[in-house]
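During the no-cost extension, the postdoctoral fellow (Dr. R.K.) reprocessed legacy sequence entries with the updated structure-token encoder. One reprocessed record is reproduced below for audit purposes.
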Amino acid sequence: MEQMRRSVETAEQQRQIQQQLAFQRQMLQEQRQQEALQQGLNALGQMGQQMQNSNQQMQQYFMSRPVPQVESLAPPRGNRISCLNVGQVTRCQ
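Re-encoded structure tokens follow.
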């Protein structure tokens, strides 16, 4: 009878240990998933910051460029306009 009681206790202890191990495995898996998610979010944050920096650099570049001078034209007789390109300068008549 005593041996049977010990067997039942041992089986119960093993069941509890198995449950604890399963719970710990699940917690470890959830922790790894959380870490992977956090790494992904960090990478996205860095990419967003890099894009913002790039956007600011582009904005500064274009703001530092001279504004093109535009002159309004009245079409000549016959409503024809001819343009001549010399380098970066375009002249239309």
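The longest helix spans residues 2-64. Helices lie at 2-64. The remaining legacy entries will be reprocessed before the final report is submitted.
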